[in-house]
């Protein structure tokens, strides 16, 4: 698809503080929809993104059970069906 782009989010670009304490598996999961800012052009096949601002991060995600989740804080999203929360780097709403 000519309008589809790939991007990488490096561990040091996830948040502005406590960069050394970032655990990527607790920030993002495969399939999450992320609002990020392009900080660099990698090569012809991908971009580098940052989520190191409050308004950047996960905007939509599915739980391990497959249900759409809603944000409950800047670091957690919750499945409304199971009631279980999952860690994420959540974007502040507009």
UniProtKB/TrEMBL annotation:
Q: What's the chief localization of this chain?
A: nucleus
Pfam families membership: EXOSC1 (PF10447)
The alphabetized UniProt keywords are: Cytoplasm, Exosome
Q: Where is the Exosome complex component CSL4 C-terminal domain?
A: 2-41
Quick one: a GO cellular component term? cytoplasm
- Superkingdom is Eukaryota
Q: Name one GO biological process term.
A: RNA processing
The listed locations are: Nucleus, Nucleolus
- Protein name, please? Exosome complex component CSL4 C-terminal domain-containing protein
* An example Gene Ontology molecular-function term: RNA binding
